[in-house]
Structures are given as structure tokens and as C-alpha cells.
Specification:
InterPro entries: Lysozyme_Inhibitor_LprI (IPR052755). This is Lysozyme inhibitor LprI N-terminal domain-containing protein. By secondary structure, the protein is of the alpha+beta class. The chain has five helices and nine strands. Helix 2 packs across helix 3 (46-66), helix 3 packs antiparallel against helix 4 (70-83) and helix 3 runs parallel beside helix 5 (93-107).
């Protein structure tokens, strides 16, 4: 009886120890509520938890630097968590390490509000092409200016025709040359420039399905 009770107590202590360790390791979210494979992997690994903690700190610093346009940086971070490279890791440790390391490097480059690259930062929108009905989403380019004359890009566009809807996306890094942004990634190429308070996409190819186009004039949301 005493031996059985001791075994139960040791087992209970082990479970509590794992729970406490997990809670201590992850700083940016509550491990008691971890549900996704990525969250559980971070809570179970001290090295991943340290990366998560560092990224949370880098993210807060990026928000501070962005100043009045920090809402665009926040939206950019949410988009990365939902649809960026980390979203396909499914708890795989090497994948998560690469995703965290790459993200930290980008967050460290978010341009301060006073830098010339910051003029691009924002959520830019235009009506989607095709037949539209109330409730249809707009095309959007989510841009974050980075030090070194570059722009982080996350965009979505669509075309609606009757019962058919096609979509496209633009995700990666654009380079600014002579006041014009040049994007080339995953077979998608585009160019855009600022005109007064508007963003004009002047060229675009290979960024979506049939009739989908990012070309047009966008206004900052």
C-alpha cells in the first residue's frame, strides 16, 4: 500500500513538474492553454521557448519603433502567425527554429517612424475586381518598411464573377529603387509607387488565379 501510494505521488509530482516547467519556459503565451502543435512544441522545449520569448521582445520593440503606424506591424505579425512560414511547421522543432530566427531578423529591421522606409508602412486597400456584392472583401497590401531600403509584403487579391471566385497572394520582400518598389517571389512579380497619399501598383504578373490582379490604386486604411 505504501509502495503504491509512493508511486502515485511520484507520478503526480512528475506531471506537476512538467506543467510548471512548461509554464516557466514560454513567455509570450499561457502554456496551460496551449492547443496547437506549434504551441505545445514550444511549451515542451526550453530552446524553442527561449526563441519565443526573444521574438516577443523583438516584436514589442518593433511596435515602439513604428510609432503611429504600429497597427500595421501588429497586423503583419498576426498574418505571419496565421499564414507565414511558421504556420506550416506543425510542431516540427527544426522548422520552428528556422521560422523564429527568420522572424526575429525581420522584426529587428522594422523601420522607425522617422526613417524614409516607414512611409510605405500601412494597410493599403482597393476594391476587388469583378462583380461585387455587399460583404465582399477588398484587395489588400499589408506593407512594413524595413531598414536597408526594403519592404515586407503580405497581400491578398480576388476576382468575383457570378458563382466563381479566384484569389491570389503576394508574400515576401520588395526592394525600393528610385522611389519604386520591385517585388519578385514565387513566380509573382509586381511594381508599385507612392503618389501623394495613394499607392499605385503599376505592373503585376503571376500573382493569382484567372482575372486576379493587384494592379490599381490603393488607399491607406
Amino acid at each position: 500500500m505504501r509502495r503504491a501510494l509512493r508511486a502515485q505521488l511520484l507520478a503526480w509530482a512528475g506531471v506537476c513538474g512538467l506543467t510548471l516547467a512548461a509554464s516557466a519556459w514560454a513567455a509570450s503565451f499561457d502554456c496551460q492553454r496551449a492547443k496547437t502543435p506549434n504551441e505545445r512544441a514550444v511549451c515542451a522545449d526550453a530552446a524553442l521557448s527561449a526563441l519565443d520569448e526573444r521574438m516577443a521582445s523583438d516584436y514589442q520593440s518593433a511596435l515602439t519603433r513604428a510609432g503611429p503606424r504600429k497597427s500595421a506591424v501588429a497586423a503583419w505579425q498576426r498574418d505571419w502567425l496565421m499564414a507565414g512560414d511558421i504556420s506550416s511547421c506543425n510542431g516540427d522543432q527544426p522548422c520552428l527554429q528556422r521560422a523564429y530566427t527568420g522572424r526575429q531578423a525581420l522584426l529587428a529591421r522594422v523601420a522607425p517612424a522617422s526613417a524614409p522606409e516607414a512611409v510605405w508602412t500601412g494597410r493599403w486597400r482597393k476594391p476587388a475586381n469583378g462583380a461585387r456584392t455587399p460583404g465582399d472583401s477588398d484587395d489588400e497590401l499589408l506593407l512594413v518598411g524595413l531598414s536597408g531600403g526594403e519592404i515586407a509584403v503580405s497581400g491578398a487579391a480576388s476576382w468575383v464573377g457570378g458563382d466563381t471566385a479566384n484569389s491570389g497572394e503576394m508574400r515576401g520582400i520588395a526592394r525600393v529603387v528610385d522611389g519604386q518598389a520591385h517585388f519578385d517571389g514565387g513566380g509573382c512579380t509586381a511594381m508599385w509607387r507612392l503618389r501623394s497619399a495613394q499607392l499605385e501598383v503599376t505592373q503585376e504578373s503571376g500573382c493569382g488565379g484567372l482575372n486576379v490582379s493587384f494592379q490599381g490604386v490603393y488607399r491607406r486604411r
